[in-house]
Design a protein that fits this description.
Elements (H helix, E strand, L loop, with lengths): L34 E7 L7 H14 L3 E6 L26 H11 L3 E5 H7 L12 E3 L3 H11 L3 E6 L2
Parallel strand pairs: 1-2, 1-5, 2-3, 3-4
Helix pairs in contact: 1-2
């Protein structure tokens, strides 16, 4: 009995295996005054959810939406200013500070970012001055009110939970 092998050439660096030019949906841009709020309740570095949310937030910002990001639960750790190894601000491995960098980019481009004081203090022992400068701490009662404000003001909303 002989085995038969089908030879298929292995893709090489630079080969394009997909049609990257086709876009199925229209490229929506924000109309004047439109807003978006991204709610993140996600454990940093447990999968890609938090980083993907921040990359999506960056796209929303660049499409012209007035952007608010609400970090609550474990997501407050995304805004930890003391991240790095062996020193603060030093990447322990490539991409180690990607979340911090993306938050700073978002704020530099006009986004408002909030972090819940309850999660910071009761869950993780973070102080307000442990936040990346520009991230605003807020009362835990504001989690619901931020969602209601977004709903009432007709914001586009993106909500992500991971446990």
């Amino acid at each position: 009995m002989s085995s038969q092998t089908v030879f298929v050439e292995t893709p090489k660096e630079g080969d394009v295996n997909w049609d990257t030019s086709e876009k199925v949906f229209p490229d929506i841009q924000a109309n004047e005054g439109e807003k978006a709020t991204v709610f993140i309740h996600s454990v940093p570095f447990e999968g890609s959810v938090s980083l993907v949310n921040l990359m999506t937030s960056t796209r929303l910002q660049r499409k012209g939406f007035e952007l608010t990001i609400v970090l609550y639960g474990p997501a407050v750790l995304l805004a930890a200013a003391g991240r790095g190894y062996p020193a603060v601000g030093t990447e322990g491995f490539p991409g180690n500070l990607s979340v911090n960098k993306q938050l700073k980019i978002l704020m530099d481009e006009g986004a408002t970012i909030y972090a819940c004081r309850f999660a910071m203090g009761a869950l993780y022992g973070m102080r307000e001055n442990d936040l990346i400068p520009g991230v605003k701490a807020f009362n835990p009662l504001d989690v619901l009110d931020s969602a209601l404000t977004a709903w009432r003001d007709k914001h586009f909303q993106l909500n992500t939970w991971t446990m």
